[in-house]
Specification:
Elements lengths: L2 H12 L4 H26 L1 H7 L4 H13 L1 H18 L5 H24 L4 H25 L18 H29 L5 H8 L3
Helix pairs in contact: 1-2, 1-5, 1-8, 2-5, 3-4, 4-7, 5-7, 6-7, 8-9
């Protein structure tokens, strides 16, 4: 869905309507948060959903636990993509790269502490994704707030972000469906592999691609 920002922010920046970039970013963050709520419900029920599709009980339980601990990462991913697209459409790419690099370094430490230090296993790996994504969001948000490069495009929060949501969705939804159809074509193979005689082996092989 964040692909809509490439179009809208690019047009606004090219037309020198710099204040619109900040409004588009806020609008996208609000809509992505709203969309994340039903997705979080689906993730919370992943274990039961997989059982309905005939998956192995142990695999479904483990996948369901992992998905539940990934829910905080879901709410971080939307704001993260909004900040990335907001900066990239202004030709500001170095801070995005530095933020991603710093986050990757932190991710190693966070995952080790959660997975091994605290003994959380796969739950720690899922939670580590959330922590790292929120760190990346915080780094980019601070940059946008303090950098002189964003003074024209980020003027603070605006009530205008709550308007014209339909126009944004007209661009965002088709973009999201295009990506989802591509991803689902691969994920369907993993789902079907769980119906084979040795689901633990088959799913582990097909999930690595």
């Amino acid at each position: 869905m964040a692909s809509a920002l490439d179009t809208l922010c690019g047009q606004a920046f090219g037309a020198k309507q710099y204040h619109l970039l900040g409004i588009y970013k806020q609008r996208a963050m609000l809509l992505f948060t709203a969309v994340s709520i039903p997705l979080a419900v689906v993730w919370f029920c992943t274990g039961q959903i997989l059982l309905l599709f005939g998956q192995d009980a142990d695999i479904a339980a483990e996948a369901g636990t992992f998905a539940r601990w990934m829910i905080p990462a879901l709410f971080a991913y939307g704001p993260l993509q909004c900040h990335v697209r907001f900066l990239q459409t202004q030709n500001i790419v170095v801070p995005v790269m530095v933020g991603a690099g710093a986050t990757a370094a932190c991710h190693l430490v966070v995952c080790w502490v959660l997975v091994f230090g605290l003994g959380m296993g796969s739950k720690g790996a899922a939670l580590g994704n959330a922590v790292s994504n929120w760190i990346n969001v915080a780094v980019l948000a601070v940059y946008v707030r303090v950098s002189p490069d964003c003074k024209k495009t980020w003027t603070g929060f605006s009530i205008e972000a709550f308007r014209h949501a339909l126009g944004f969705l007209n661009l965002a939804v088709p973009s999201a469906l295009r990506v989802c159809l591509e991803w689902w074509s691969f994920e369907l193979l993993v789902l079907l592999s769980g119906l084979l005689p040795n689901p633990q082996l088959e799913t582990s092989v097909l999930s690595i691609r």
